[in-house]
Write a structure and sequence with these properties.
The protein is an alpha+beta fold and 165 residues long. The chain has helices spanning 6-14, 18-40, 43-50, 63-77, 88-101, 145-148, and strands spanning 106-118, 123-135, 138-140, 152-157. Helix 4 runs antiparallel to helix 5.
Length: 165
């Protein structure tokens, strides 16, 4: 058996339709251009660009579709090569973009916290930032929601400051 024989089987295991292949390609493209977009545009402008004009909210969100979006985004961002490095900002923006387009009314949130770092000479406070998603007012698709709750939300889009917890 040739060393490349596994490719079609692995390909079929991860993509069951042309739509899934197209979704993967679109996620790949956004992950590729996102670093440049973050440098070129202000955050409010970028959020407007990433937000669909009309949100067709799906009451019964297809969890399989959502799971594929998360799987493909996490796969690409966890490559740790070139621009494919997982950061909370990239992950939140990619998931926000594709979940909103799939009909989920998610919000992206940005927050900060003070993290005291001690050194030999002095104790210094360092501000740390984090980005995450909210869905129905709850922290959504975070690996550790308890840690996310330690951040103070400073900006959300669409503006949900009064409703977030």
């Amino acid at each position: 058996m040739s060393s490349c024989a596994w490719i079609p089987r692995k390909f079929r295991a991860n993509f069951s339709s042309f739509e899934e292949i197209w979704l993967f390609i679109r996620i790949f493209l956004l992950v590729t251009v996102l670093p440049a977009m973050l440098r070129l545009f202000s955050l409010p402008m970028l959020m407007k660009m990433l937000t669909p004009r009309d949100l067709r909210v799906c009451k019964d969100q297809d969890s399989e579709s959502r799971d594929k979006i998360v799987k493909f985004a996490d796969y690409l961002l966890n490559r740790n090569f070139w621009i494919f490095r997982s950061t909370c900002l990239k992950r939140a923006l990619v998931l926000y973009y594709f979940l909103r387009r799939s009909g989920m009314d998610v919000q992206v949130c940005f927050g900060v916290r003070s993290n005291a770092k001690s050194s030999d000479r002095k104790r210094q406070n360092v501000l740390e930032g984090h980005a995450w998603l909210l869905y129905s007012g709850n922290i959504f698709l975070e690996r550790d929601a308890k840690v996310t709750k330690t951040y103070t939300m400073t900006y959300s889009f669409p503006d949900m400051m009064g409703q977030a917890g």
